[in-house]
Amino acid sequence: MNYFAGLIQLYSKTGRAVTVSPSDEVALSAGVRGAITFMLVGCSTMSTVSQNMRPSCVSLMDANRTDWYIRHSSYYLQVESENLTDNLPLFQGDSSYILHADTFYTGYYALESVSLPDHYIKSEVNGSLVVRQRSYTADYYDSASFRMYDYITASECVYF
């Protein structure tokens, strides 16, 4: 059973909105405007996730494009269509994340890659979003911490 569902928008710890470029790269906007809306759904690769992690396994689908998910490829995040892949199991693993509450900071979420354990979504200096191996530094924690807001009510999501 998955406890997550709904339309959300993500923001970095610094308040920058998560957006998608015209070339489908996932990055931070220059400011708080421009957040893309994602559908938070049960992870694409649920059967490969341990029983105790299944309730917190999620995938993020572009709310405006059915079956287009955030996935990592060569560590960089992009939005791609599940229907256009030639390797569905790889796609499903690369588009599934374990959602952790209060991992690095109270009130913030971190998204750990299912296919690359101990690798979290984080922002680079240029604003690109990537998955990188966990580093025990304040800079890493800052760039891998996100707030999640309900798109309908604009209220902060609390899942745990």
The CATH level-2 architecture is identified as Trefoil
| Number of alpha- plus pi-helical segments | 2
What is the C-level CATH assignment?
Mainly Beta
Please trace the helix and strand order, writing H or E for each element.
EEEEEEEHEEEEHE
How helix-rich are the residues, as a percent range? under 10%
Average pLDDT? 90
From the structure provided, what is the oligomeric state, counting identical versus distinct chains?
single chain
**What fraction of residues sit in β-strands?**
35-45%
Overall domain count: 1
End-to-end C-alpha gap: 14 Å
Q: What is the molecular shape?
A: globular
Give me the count of strands: 12
Report the structural category: mainly beta
Low-pLDDT regions: none
The biggest sheet amounts to: 6 strands, antiparallel
Sheet with the most strands: spatial strand order: 9-8-5-4-1-12
- Which radius of gyration do the C-alpha atoms yield? 14 Å
CATH topology type: Trefoil (Acidic Fibroblast Growth Factor, subunit A)
Gist of the model:
With 160 residues, the chain is mostly beta strands. The chain is built from 2 helices and 12 strands; from the N terminus they run βββββββαββββαβ. It has a single domain, classed as Trefoil (Acidic Fibroblast Growth Factor, subunit A).
